[in-house]
Structures are given as structure tokens and as C-alpha cells.
């Protein structure tokens, strides 16, 4: 398993879903980056940073909203280490983007050696095993051959495909129970057993919480990162997790802003 040693305060945020339709969320994220530059020893963004990502080549002629985000990420990585993860919406994030903003790509999963002890970090969609249709889709789009064929298409073609897939996903989700779209308990227990790590952090489900579990008589903790939305809900939603020598602590976007 890929180990990353990260001493000092580590800030983690996921499911930002940044895009042209989320200007207020982007502004909140920019403020978050400025704060991280001053207070964090490292910043980790484990997936769904973007609402959609059709390939790293989009940065070569980035639209204004994206250019602003890329500049802010580059400024942040000049101050502290920045790690980018892949989610279910931005699984095509690659080395070109990471290099352009001075960041590194997070392995899946990542074993963090922190001041609070070992922490396993991942996006989290792999644990939603009750959603068979989604897992089939996930397997398809994570296939290198599928990705190569998709990236060989023009940007307009990729945009159209992404929009179609997003629409189909939203329609399908209307008929799925909330339980199906949440993590599977057995999958969570399995990752704790396989890794031996006492703490798991993930996003994806948009159900921020700290869950204390008993796995084979051992205490285990599962921390779920919140999603961000400052454009379509009131009050704004979002937050991040800090890991330091005091342990793990949630910070709410509305409270801290």
C-alpha cells in the first residue's frame, strides 16, 4: 500500500464539484486555499474537485473560471505540498494537471502517516457496492483502454458525452434508495481488515459524519468528508478535515467563513 508521510497539520477537502455553474463555491474554495497556505503543512483533495473532468488537455486553453482555480492551486503548492485525488466525476485527472499546478497525484488508496497515527484515505465510491449499475460504470471508465479511446475524441465530443452521462446518472439516481448510494458495511469492514489501519477518511457520499465501529473487537473510525455547495443551497454547505497531533477535527465552511 502506498504510504505518504505527512507531519504537521494536514487539511483535507473533497467533493467541491467546481465548474462554470458554481462561482460562489469557487470563491469559497479560493479563500480556503489562502487559509491553507497560512495554516496547513499539506493539503489533500481526494476526488471530485471538479464537477466534471474530460481530460487534462482542457488546461491548455482553460476557461476563466478554471484558469483562476489553477492559478490558486499553483500558488498554494508553492507554499505547501498539494495532493490531488481522483473521484467519480474527475477520474481523468492526470499527470499533466498535477504538474501544471505543482501538485502530486494521490494513490488509491493512500496510507497517510500523520501526527495522529496512520490514516487510510480514498474517495469512497468503491465502497458503494450495493449500487451494481454504478460499480459497472466505474469499472468501465477506469479501464485504460476506455480512457484512451475517450481522450482520443475532440473536446466538444467529450463534453457532449460527459453531459449525456451526467444526465443519465441524475435520472438513475432518482429511482435509487439512499441506502444503495451509501457505502456497504461489509466493504468498510473488509478495508479495515485488509489494511489494519484504525482510521478511514473518504468523501463521495455527501454524508459528513464520524462513525465509530467495532471490527473484530477493535475500535475503528470512519470519517466522511462533506461536499461543498455555495451556489444552490442556503445556508452554504461545505467543510474540511484537519489532522494534527490533537487528532481529527471537522471544520464547517459556514462557521469558519
Automatic annotation (TrEMBL):
InterPro entries assigned: Calcineurin-like_PHP, LpxH-like, Metallo-depent_PP-like, UDP-diacylglucosamine_Hdrlase
Gene3D superfamilies: 3.60.21.10
Binding site for substrate: 88-89, 131, 169, 173, 176, 204
Sites where the protein binds Mn(2+) 2: 48, 88, 123, 204
Keywords, alphabetical: Cell inner membrane, Cell membrane, Hydrolase, Lipid A biosynthesis, Lipid biosynthesis, Lipid metabolism, Manganese, Membrane, Metal-binding
Function: Hydrolyzes the pyrophosphate bond of UDP-2,3-diacylglucosamine to yield 2,3-diacylglucosamine 1-phosphate (lipid X) and UMP by catalyzing the attack of water at the alpha-P atom. Involved in the biosynthesis of lipid A, a phosphorylated glycolipid that anchors the lipopolysaccharide to the outer membrane of the cell.
Family the entry assigns: Belongs to the LpxH family.
Protein name: UDP-2,3-diacylglucosamine hydrolase
Organism listed in the record: Achromobacter spanius
Gene label: lpxH
Amino acid at each position: 500500500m502506498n504510504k505518504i508521510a505527512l507531519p504537521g497539520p494536514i487539511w483535507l477537502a473533497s467533493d467541491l464539484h467546481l465548474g462554470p455553474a458554481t462561482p460562489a463555491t469557487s470563491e469559497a474554495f479560493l479563500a480556503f486555499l489562502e487559509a491553507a497556505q497560512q495554516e496547513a503543512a499539506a493539503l489533500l483533495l481526494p476526488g471530485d474537485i471538479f464537477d466534471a473532468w474530460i481530460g487534462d488537455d482542457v488546461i491548455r486553453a482553460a476557461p476563466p473560471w478554471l484558469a483562476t482555480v489553477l492559478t490558486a492551486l499553483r500558488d498554494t503548492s508553492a507554499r505547501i505540498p498539494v495532493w490531488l485525488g481522483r473521484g467519480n466525476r474527475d477520474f481523468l485527472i492526470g499527470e499533466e494537471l498535477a504538474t501544471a499546478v505543482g501538485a502530486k497525484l494521490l494513490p488509491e488508496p493512500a496510507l497517510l502517516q500523520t501526527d495522529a497515527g496512520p490514516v487510510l484515505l480514498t474517495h469512497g465510491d468503491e465502497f458503494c457496492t450495493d449500487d451494481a449499475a454504478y460499480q459497472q460504470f466505474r469499472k468501465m471508465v477506469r479501464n485504460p483502454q476506455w480512457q484512451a479511446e475517450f481522450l482520443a475524441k475532440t473536446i466538444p465530443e467529450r463534453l457532449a458525452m460527459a453531459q449525456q452521462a451526467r444526465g443519465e446518472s441524475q435520472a438513475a439516481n432518482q429511482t435509487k434508495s439512499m441506502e444503495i448510494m451509501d457505502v456497504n458495511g461489509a466493504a468498510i469492514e473488509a478495508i479495515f481488515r485488509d489494511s489494519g489501519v484504525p482510521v478511514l477518511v473518504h468523501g463521495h457520499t455527501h454524508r459528513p459524519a464520524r462513525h465509530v465501529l467495532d471490527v473484530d473487537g477493535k475500535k475503528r473510525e470512519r470519517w466522511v468528508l462533506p461536499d461543498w455547495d455555495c451556489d444552490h443551497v442556503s445556508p452554504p454547505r461545505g467543510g474540511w478535515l484537519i489532522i494534527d497531533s490533537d487528532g481529527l477535527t471537522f471544520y464547517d465552511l459556514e462557521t469558519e467563513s
